[in-house]
Amino acid sequence: MRAIISGASGLIGEALVARLCGEGFDVLRLVRRAPSRPDEAFWDPAAGEIDRAALEGADAVVHLAGAGVGDRPWTESYKRLIRDSRVRGTRLLAETLAGLKSPPSVLVSGSAIGFYGDTGAAETTESAPKGAGFLADLTADWEAASAPAAAAGIRVVLPRTGIVLSRRGGILGRTLPLFRLGAGGRLGDGRQWTSWISLRDEVGALRHLIGSDLSGPVNLTAPSPVTNAEYTRELARVLRRPAVLPVPAPLLRLVLRDFADEGPLVSQRVLPVRLLESGFSFADPDLPAALKAALEA
User: Fold this and answer.
1) What is the pLDDT of residues 202-239, one digit of tens each?
2) Integer Cα distance of 97 and 56 in angstroms
3) Which domain holds residue 48?
4) Domains identified in the chain, total number
């Protein structure tokens, strides 16, 4: 099979490319610079440019590109960048795929559980409505931007991903040095629910979506979400370090601005109902197994 991947240099994209290449896929990476290898093709979402001919004849497209949501404080300019990098890129890709002579059979177009907003302690499935906030509005528009591909008969899957656990990046990668020093702790009161997934299950789920008959939103989270306090205790236990330095919510809001209440302080107890119903089996269904796998990988 021939697969095209955007965001191939990111944490998830890099691992997915390795998985697909290991299975014998012919993988083409979309890059925003002059291609330097035969397995690369140019695109520039901001300028609306893409190598259309390179997309012809692909079996599957996995779209993971977008500016990091938590990489910088949420200034108005950075929020525009987050939004534009997702909505414009998805629309460009979907419209291009829809107009191909030989389009792919499936587009797996990245999304996020930010769609649900703050759900408190309520168990949340794919049938839940859109929540409130910047991320919820962004994710709804991000998903809607894939509509041209679906209208052209391409099966479009929208994996709503939770927090991906890996020592090489993401939240775990950024906070691991503090926890190793014994300077970690819960965020705010620690009662907010955290919906996570191990990197290998994230990649496995994306591979599953390519070959399944699923379409529409699919939650990519482990079946056992935990509170932030539970997450903190478990990470400290695995590292054999204390974690007794909580970060007060006002300090998080001061440093992270609006992102604090939609990122580290948001409560989301999301369940992967459609993924489980489709027969996917988690390698790391609980947090101890996931943290162990993340720290050993």
Assistant:
1) 999 999 999 999 999 999 999 999 999 999 999 999 99
2) 8
3) 2-296
4) 1
